[in-house]
Structure formats: structure tokens, C-alpha cells
């Protein structure tokens, strides 16, 4: 299988080799976030696009692994439409929803929280726009979670000072949780569900013995920690790959095993990994 020159970079090859070693423990899975990992961060969620090389690699990996999964903060249907590979497993809204073999599932407590999520988002947006002229504000209702984006704000620090108290008050008023991400505030149901619990569920349901996860943001730290704990307990071989950018959080750096720099390098690593697994299959 021919691969692009980027995938021949020694750092990429070393990362792919480390992934390959973990995936020898079968059944095995590659799991990835979307935004900032296989898709460059865009000004708005709708503008983001999955790297074509990453998409091609994920498709190739489905032929060699027990499962290939996307675990994202996006709604699973949005993630599936964005990636465009129906054979993948899509876990969305940080584990509150998933699509497996085309069958959707939503956590019942999260489903019941939809009206509260919608009300909290409406209150945050109304209060913010009543306080300042905020054409930069994007409020995204994802059903069982909601995201308040301030990436387009001319002064992000002022945006945080405005939005954080509004978001905290609305979350408390409606019995919801507030979490922070890369230039976002997220409103979630009052559940101990996150990307870490989502990966634990995947591992249990599929009996996974090898898991490689690619992530980039503080919302991926729960997954990184869960994989570290699973490895320490002997439950599975795991590898935590950080996809670094100019604003990578210290919490991410503290919880990864190795790193690649940027979406293009992540895609190249996935392609090199797919090529290595294909070579193994040809020799078998």
C-alpha cells in the first residue's frame, strides 16, 4: 500500500510502531477524537472537516482490527456524517450517546435532561447578548449536551469573564454540570459519564485487550486517565497518543504516552499504522 511522504517521517514511524505493538494484543481497537485530532480546529463547528488521509486510514484499519471507534463531544450522528464511514462505532456527547452498527442509543437520564439543557443554553445566550454585543457567540444545542463557543471572540479573556458565571449559574439552576474545553463551556446532565467511561464500556463490551487512543484536548483527559488505569490494572495494553497544537493544555501533556504534532501528523501516523498491519496480514 502506498503512503504519503509525511507517513515516512521517523517520528511518525516511531509512533506507528508503538501503536502497532499495543494492537498485537487482540482483540484490539483504535479509538480517536475528531476535532483537533483527525480534523483541524475550525472557527465554527460546521466548518470543520476530517483530514482525507485520516479518513482513508480509519477505513483501512476497520479491515484489520476488532473495532475502530470515534469518541467525541459532538452528537454521534454529526460525528458519523462528518467522518463518513458507517462501519465505525460512534460514541458522541462524551459517552452519553452512541451508534453501533447503525443502531442509536442514548443514556435515558441524558435523554430526560434535554429540556433542561435547552433552557440553560437559552438563558446563557439571552443573558450574554443582553450584556454585550456578541456576534462571536455560538451556542450549540446537541440534545443531551450543549456547548457555548467563544473561539471567535476578539478578547477571549473578556469572553470567559462574561460567560463563565452565566454558564455556572444556569447549570446550577437546572441541575446540570458545567465542564470546560478548548474555548468552550459545556453543559451536561448530572451523570458521571465521560470519554473515560465510554472507553471502559467499549473495552468491556468487546473484550478488548489492546487499545490505542488519539486525543488532543482537556475533554480527552478522562479517556487518557482511564486507559492509564486499565493498563496499570492489567485489564488491557493501552497507548495514549496526544495530538499537539499551539495551545495544548498541561493536563493533556501530563496524561499521554507519546505525541504527534498536528492533525496532518496524526493522519500520517494512522496511515503508517494501517500499512504496517496490512504488511502483517500479507505475511501471515
The CATH homologous superfamily of the largest domain is named: HAD superfamily/HAD-like
Mean pLDDT over all positions: 94
> How can the largest sheet be summarized?
8 strands, mixed
What number of domains?
Answer: 2
> Strand sequence of the main sheet, in spatial order?
5-4-3-2-1-10-11-12
Instruction: Please work out how many helical segments DSSP would assign.
Output: 10
Write the element-wise H/E pattern from the N-terminal end onward: HEHEHEEEHHEEHEEHEHEHEH
Q: Which architecture of the largest domain would the CATH scheme give at its second level?
A: 3-Layer(aba) Sandwich
The fraction of residues assigned to DSSP E strands is: 15-25%
| Secondary-structure class | alpha/beta
> Low-confidence parts lasting 5 or more residues at pLDDT below 50?
none
Total strand segments: 12
How widely separated are the two ends? 16 Å
CATH domain topology of the largest domain: Rossmann fold
- Fraction of residues in helices? 40-55%
Q: Categorize the overall geometry.
A: globular
Notes on the structure:
- This protein has 284 residues and is α/β, with parallel strands linked by helices.
- The chain has 2 domains: 193 residues, 3-Layer(aba) Sandwich (Rossmann fold), CATH 3.40.50; 78 residues, Trehalose-6-phosphate phosphatase related protein, domain 2 (Alpha-Beta Plaits, 2-Layer Sandwich), CATH 3.30.70.
- The protein is built from 10 helices and 12 strands.
- The chain has an 8-stranded mixed β-sheet, with helices on both faces.
- A hairpin with a 2-residue loop joins strand 4 and strand 5.
- It is globular and about 65 Å long.
- It starts with 9 loop residues before the first helix and ends with a helix.
- The model has no long low-confidence stretch (mean pLDDT 94).
Amino acid at each position: 500500500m502506498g503512503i504519503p511522504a509525511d507517513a515516512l517521517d521517523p517520528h511518525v514511524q516511531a509512533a506507528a510502531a508503538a501503536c502497532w505493538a499495543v494492537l498485537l494484543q487482540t482483540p484490539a481497537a483504535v479509538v480517536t477524537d475528531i476535532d483537533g485530532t483527525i480534523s483541524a480546529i475550525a472557527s465554527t463547528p460546521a466548518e470543520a472537516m476530517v483530514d482525507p488521509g485520516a479518513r482513508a486510514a480509519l477505513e483501512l484499519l476497520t479491515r484489520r482490527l476488532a473495532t475502530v471507534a470515534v469518541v467525541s463531544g459532538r452528537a454521534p450522528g454529526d460525528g458519523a456524517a462528518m467522518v463518513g464511514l458507517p462501519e465505525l462505532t460512534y460514541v458522541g456527547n462524551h459517552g452519553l450517546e452512541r451508534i453501533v452498527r447503525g443502531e442509536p442509543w442514548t443514556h435515558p437520564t441524558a435523554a430526560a435532561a434535554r429540556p433542561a439543557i435547552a433552557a440553560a443554553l437559552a438563558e446563557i445566550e439571552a443573558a450574554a447578548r443582553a450584556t454585550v454585543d456578541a456576534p462571536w457567540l455560538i451556542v450549540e444545542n446537541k440534545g443531551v449536551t450543549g456547548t457555548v463557543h467563544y473561539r471567535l471572540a476578539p478578547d477571549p479573556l473578556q469572553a470567559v469573564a462574561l460567560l463563565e458565571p452565566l454558564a455556572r449559574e444556569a447549570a446550577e439552576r437546572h441541575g446540570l454540570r458545567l465542564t470546560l474545553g478548548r474555548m468552550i463551556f459545556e453543559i451536561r446532565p448530572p451523570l458521571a459519564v465521560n470519554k473515560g467511561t465510554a472507553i471502559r464500556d467499549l473495552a468491556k463490551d468487546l473484550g478488548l485487550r489492546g487499545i490505542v487512543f488519539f486525543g488532543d484536548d482537556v475533554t480527552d483527559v478522562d479517556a487518557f486517565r482511564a486507559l492509564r488505569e486499565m493498563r496499570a490494572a492489567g485489564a488491557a495494553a493501552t497507548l495514549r497518543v496526544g495530538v499537539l497544537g499551539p495551545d495544548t493544555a498541561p493536563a493533556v501533556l501530563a496524561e499521554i504516552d507519546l505525541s504527534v504534532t498536528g492533525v496532518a501528523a496524526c493522519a500520517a501516523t494512522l496511515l503508517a499504522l494501517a500499512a504496517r498491519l496490512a504488511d502483517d496480514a500479507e505475511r501471515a
